[in-house]
Amino acid sequence: MTLTKNQITDTIQNKLQLSKTEAYEVMEDFLEIIKQSIEQGNSLMISGFGKFTVNEKKPRKGRNPATNKEMILAKRRVVTFKCSGQLRKIINNSN
Prior knowledge:
Elements: H1 5-16, H2 20-39, E1 44-46, E2 50-57, E3 60-63, E4 70-73, E5 76-83, H3 85-93
Antiparallel strand pairs: 1-2, 2-5, 3-4
Helix pairs in contact: 1-2
């Protein structure tokens, strides 16, 4: 099951005893902080959760699968996530 923004907002609302609007604003502000950090190319580490890292991919040869034509794929930035050891233990012990 996928966790939605509404479900996160409800959880924040219940845990912090906030109004629905306040809980939504907290969640949106937190996500905006994460987005701004990543947009600037910074890594973001959340202790006990994991680390988001921005990596540069170099231009490379590719192939269009529909036409089989070779092409050069432009350089790009990708975000990777590596979970913390604590989170890994939690995930592996919950099975």
